[in-house]
């Protein structure tokens, strides 16, 4: 066949799969998964590798087997549900996300992408579409990083298996290592075949809620994610002198919190100046010592989360931060230092992947009488960020009401969830048929 | 006798007692008490009503008995060591301080005033001075407030006994109530006569380290404390909206920490404007929620400690604080509130008490070839603050090296400690002879 023929056949199969997606079934599957750790406020508490997470994994394994999938697990606990392709030896098309939550999360963050992946397989079955390549739904381990840091362990270890050794030593608040929790989880899936960590993948599409306000504000149900903004994390420490709030005159104080606030104000000014270039800056975590009502702070530490789609803007911000800290360090009586905690450059998904996503989204939206998709970048990390290091990757977003996520109030309209799964079905099927 | 004759006799006795104070004995007694909870870094860890504190109390009881004192204890655990006067029915002259410490404190904060009180009794014995009134050395319970809040429980319950009921319900970090700890302490001094809480007192003098830098800077060994500055404590709460640091554009954020910092800057500006009037302001304790590197703060709470010798300045500051909080509350998307936690007006010691202290200090300093005393106000709370509610009260300060206290590095020169005890002997004796 000519490549035009292949494209035509692939698009035809993609349309069939898209049309076979069922809204009610999708919603029921979302609710069924949300029951594991479901809360009376509508949220879900299901941190990674807890008993509830293991029960939820078992639930998905049984669902996947019922759909005819082969189930495998790798050394990082990532689960793969494979629907066979006509050519079994070809690398699969991957989709999926994660099912772990923040201490209090919603029903959709991560879970939606996994459930929609299984819905795609159901739709392929129902439409009797035979794909050339296998289609694989993945459940990545510990995306949230809430129990064990860092986040996205499963996907980053998949992309670079040597990372797992370090991850295994990460401890939760109770002192349990990720390695110990992982071994216990693997022991509970002894009936599941294991697979090597990091097998070849043809392409990957991740469907996720936006967790931001952009799609809602634009009143469109589907977003074509062109990339994930770059991020740099820092810790800033300021050492002053703890002293008695009552006896120490203002002019002799070395108040570390006051110095930290002056520094923070400079950083906000830098961030405001770069706002038009898309810089986002958050000073989220603070430690004040001795943190006593009648003692001047002697020691303050805070974190800086800076993100941007433009690496040059991020680099400029980092330079300003380091300059401000150096100036503070040189001023009377203070010591200040900045430490880089994490940095990841802008992730750019391949244009041909975005074009494919856009076709799938546009078809689903048009058939539903909805607005055409828009393109946007992701402000949040996703497993796709790491998968993009090893294969052509893309993401689809659906709106988050009021931009709220990591919260029991997280919500997306069922019609939007339905369109997202349809767009995913199209993209995965076309990729698997080429 | 004429009042002139009485004054002459009293001054003569005061001079005899002052001259009988012994430096070596004083220092040995300070070291002996510091052994209870002494640390290898030179500090002392002896929180109130702990086993170490109870051992230290027993040590002092035995010392006082060896000096011929009658020992009594009240319902708040305050210990009184009484040297009889010629007229047993007259209210005593009170001196002393506390022996509890911060989690890590020095050898002198509080302990010095108690040990110097016992040294005064020893000096009176050695000089065979018979005073008209009894002289009583007090060990106040829980001045620091480190284990059980609030501080100065013993002296404030002495001044107003009905406060004890509420204090008994205060809990330490382990959940033990002050009442339970107190009952256990009282059970261990079953051999000590009890006395009512809040007996009549003729006058009170408390000797203490300055815990600030004023005397050291002035290079004088003794300070006449004219009062204790007023204090107002507040808690400020700011409610914004927690949101994802990556996905939330800067222009739609309601970052509670950023709002708190803007408010804090206004407060610093107010404090700076009133610095010349002696205002001291500290924003010491912070709680940031959820306090996560990649989440915008949704909820911030911080404390304000404002102190001044001028009530009008404190009132003006409070008005500015309330105004700033109201303005923030009215601004887009934030809710803010201020709560008063504690307020105590300026304590002014009677001028005639200050004059007496000054005579005692001046004589001791002149005889040692040291600089004459200066007058100052106390920036810190002391038990004398509450005792001043029930009788004429005064304080004497000795220098604190580098102003450091609540720290193992707390230090005062032995010659200064010696002069402080001499000044105390003079003041107590003169008061007891009139």
TrEMBL record, chains A, B:
Similarity section: Belongs to the peptidase M20 family.
Cofactor comment text: Binds 2 Zn(2+) ions per subunit.
Residue positions binding Zn(2+) 1: 98, 109, 208
Organism: Pandoraea thiooxydans
Origin superkingdom: Bacteria
Identification of the protein by name: Zn-dependent hydrolase
Residue ranges constituting the Peptidase M20 dimerisation domain according to the UniProt record: 227-329
Coiled coil: none
Cofactor requirement: Zn(2+)
Positions annotated to bind Zn(2+) 2: 109, 144, 406
Cleavable signal peptide: none
Keyword Hydrolase recorded: yes
